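User: Can you predict the 3D structure for this chain?
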Amino acid sequence: MDIIEISTHLIDEDTDQPRYQFDEDALQELMKSIEELGLLSPIKVRSAKDARYKIIYGNRRYKACKTLGRPTIPCIVSDITDETEIYLEQIAENLTREGFSPIEEAEAFNKLLNDPKFSSSTKFLSSRLGKPESYIKNKCELLKFSNAVKKIIVAGTEIKKDRLTEDQLLPLKDLPLEHRDSLALIVARDEMPVSDVKKIARLFKDKTISANTKDKLLYKSGHELLETWSTFEQNKAERAKKSEPKEPKETVKKEKPVIIDQDPIATSPAATAPAKAPIEGKLQRLLDFLPAHAPQPTDIHNIQDTDRASLTQEMDKLIEQLEMQLAEWRNIKDSMKSETIPSVGMTQ
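Assistant: Here is the predicted structure, written as structure tokens:
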């Protein structure tokens, strides 16, 4: 492969290439290295109009040499003209370099998959770039998030304040937009580990919690969201345990005794009625506990400003608990409508 020196002023950057973000500190380090050791790796170019050349890869090295005022740059001249092949080569080269951000990767994959100029498939990209199809699909999922979130996505797995890794984001990708981005920013602010993000994602995917309640949860911190998830899961486990059918105790058949002068009260329907199911008792206790509805006082002018914030917070807690209770009872009622539940105490 021939390497030739080409005048710096005859080389143009490719503004359509996948990588467009360049860290200034890294560029300064590269310039210092070139000053001390020279350019160790040539850049790759292709012929363009008017005897000029366009960069295929090596934009950062080109920028450093140009800033240093080097008159020529060692180059490999490619004879490839197919746009898809050139773009694939640019991606493959950048995948081996530091600083190629996850969003740049995602945008490059998305362009190859959806731009009519390329119209590639995930399977084709996987075979050409040596990456699993799941890798490519997960990168493209990052584009679902807003620009505010995209700006703080970083490569690697190290969790940093006000930064997001791909692993932190992926559990949130299927949530509605109004919850997805807000939660992502909470995760970044509170430096939440992936395991905690998955728990919060499950909370927001639960269909028994109303959208209104979920909107209010977005005002909580990451730690408070985890506490809410823990409480919700405990309550759900308790409900599931109570709804499990109890296994009947083994009974020993005995000969029916002959009863003389049987007490009519002892054999009345009330005395022999089956015990109520636990859920009936719970419902009755809840109804007994709730007071009859009456309009609440609307005069709030006498409430001191210092007390209003605390009162508002307590109201939010009350509304949240009531809405969760309401969602549970609606779910039970819907289940009773859709299933035939055998009466407790009836012989089969």
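The chain has 15 helices and five strands. The longest helix spans residues 305-338.
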